[in-house]
Amino acid sequence: MGTQGSDEQGRATRRSVLGAAAALGAASAVVGLPAVARADERHGQGGGFPSLPVPTIIGHRGASGYRPEHTIGSYQLALDMGVHVIEQDLVPTKDGHLVCRHENDITGTTDVSAHPEFAGRKTTKTVDGVKLTGWFTEDFTLAELKTLRAKERIPGTRQHNTLYDGRWEVPTMEEVLQWADREGRKRGKPVWLHIETKHPTYFRGLGLGLEEPLAKLLRKYGRQRRTAPNFLQSFEPSSIERLARLVDAPGVVLLSGAGSKPWDFVVSGDPRTTDDLVKPEGLKWIATYAKGLGPTLDLIIPKDASGKLTQPTTLVRDAHKAGLILHPYTLRNENSFLPADFRKGTDPNAYGDAFGAFQAYFATGIDGIFSDNGDTALLARADFVNR
Predict the structure, then answer these.
(1) Which of 82, 113, 292, 335 is most buried, judging by how many CB atoms fall within 10 Å of its CB?
(2) Whole-angstrom Cα distance, residue 132 to residue 123?
């Protein structure tokens, strides 16, 4: 990278990817309808959430490219930017409260290590087959957790975010619902949320099931109906099945990379992998209890060994045929997170051509996308729609 020849080659690759994605999107289309209209139709008819623009921009953990993730500050900035939906990840406390953290291991996202009173809580656990050493939410009461403050998870990449270390608490899901209600009344329209249950099988084994308290909160705040302004998501299909029995809010099954297996499948002995779930038969099964799919972006457009995009898969077409919307994850601005085609220079923490990457993924016909950088995503969406 950096020479005229390599720049030309990169542009050629991007044109090829965009062309292939656009062709695949067109092939999956209802004849005569543009991509945006088709997606709006799917949202309105299939999911019961016609008020969302398409492609939908989802604030990944809020505006985590600019603020420590899963804080009210991060959520507020995402909302102020204008993102359409804001994501929360849920884990429980020892006394059963749901709090917003991407993981139950809070070593890297709070200042817990600086609290000598909790030094004895440091421990080693195996979560979904992975051995971790640190501090975990399920070992703290809510009152204890509230004495901690959030901090930036990847300070080496996002040093500017460390300015806000210690500014916000770890929020409860109920506090987020109250915040969303206040902001919704102020703005005259509902604040949409994308709520994920994290490690539900692991927590159920500890007697800390996530789905029942989440459903109770949703009912309390009037967000349990089919038309409620939220999605419920999980990497474990059984969690979405359980939630579907408790509330009518639309569910989204998240999928990791090719060849991976949901942890609840590992525990139950289900032989299927992600490869099976993205086939028409697997998608048809998901559609019996969920409204959407949240695949990693590599399941939409795989990368080659050098990290460059290849040809799009048929997942968008196949999922739409099954009646599912697609909200893939996650596009970020930094070079280290972008496909190699869209990196600029050699600094992994510098911003690359995120706008170009967004265009490549939008062209496949996806219904939305998760991004740490909601402002970039919204500008890229405007470019796509106007084009």
Answers:
(1) 292
(2) 8
